[in-house]
Amino acid sequence: MSGKRFEGRVAVITGAASGIGAATARLMAREGARLVLGDISADGIATIASELGATGVTGDVSKQADVEALIRAAVDAHGRIDILFNNAGIGSYGNSVEMEAEQWERVIAIDLHSVFYACKAAIPHMPEGSAIVNTASISGLGGDYRFAAYNAAKGAVINYTRALAMDHAKAGIRVNALCPGLVDTPITSDLNQIPGLREDWLSRIPMGRAAKPEEMAAVVAFLASDDASYVTGSIMVADGGTTACTGQPD
Ligand code: NAD
């Protein structure tokens, strides 16, 4: 790994209290970033903010005013934002007949609208050389059975990432998406309660295991760093080979 890639850089991370967001916050802190961390969990954000000496902001990313408050906290404290990691998200189990409209709307609001709210508020404060990373999913590239709303939200995050990359390239802001496969975080531990689902997913991963959150953080850090200075509009898959497979059995 190169030296301190984020020395003095101001990074805002949503969904930073757990999983991929927390692992990325820890990595960026080790590499010198000044962090402003957001999460809906007040206890969770207080814990990680105090661990890393970061600013912690409690809020719900599905509410535009809460996202604006997070961005304002970063700008008030540091005067600019160099890295925006739009990572907060929830899973959602159910096909279109099984789920109610409230569930659909909640998933689209948390997993998709939040990315727009954060980009709209942050981009005017992002100087040339800044980077945005959006957490999508391989569920946005192909469909997962019975994850209708999640597939829709993550697919939209992927194409929105391309639109952002194009619209802000001349301002020197790079925008990329991370598409994780299965990662061991609380989001997936909830799904362990669905009989057989985890075993089924694992059987489809050529590497034969889920990722650790730290393995996603390493990819996010690359995309957010100057090492990726010519990378924008890319959809970075980190899935242990899952989407490389046609679905034929081993
Ligand atoms: P996680 O549950 O560990 O972390 C998600 C964080 O987002 C939590 O801290 C949670 O409190 C926060 N959050 C949830 N709703 C929020 C809201 N309304 N406002 C603010 N914060 C909110 O799960 P994770 O796996 O680290 O998930 C991070 C991202 O990775 C999500 O966007 C998820 O969809 C995506 N992802 C995860 C996997 C996986 O297998 N774990 C795979 C693909 C994509």
Automatic annotation (TrEMBL):
Annotated signal sequence range: none
Protein family: Belongs to the short-chain dehydrogenases/reductases (SDR) family.
UniProt keyword list: Oxidoreductase
Ranges for domain Ketoreductase: 9-181
PANTHER family: DIHYDROANTICAPSIN 7-DEHYDROGENASE (PTHR43477:SF1)
Gene3D superfamilies noted in UniProt: NAD(P)-binding Rossmann-like Domain
Domain of life: Bacteria
Lineage, top ranks: Bacteria, Pseudomonadati, Pseudomonadota, Alphaproteobacteria, Hyphomonadales
Source organism of this protein record: Henriciella algicola
Name recorded for this polypeptide: SDR family oxidoreductase
InterPro entries reported in the protein's UniProt record: KR_dom, NAD(P)-bd_dom_sf, Sc_DH/Rdtase_CS, SDR_DHRS6-like, SDR_fam
CDD domains assigned: SDR_c
Electron transport listed as a keyword: no
GO molecular function: oxidoreductase activity
KW Oxidoreductase (keyword) present: yes
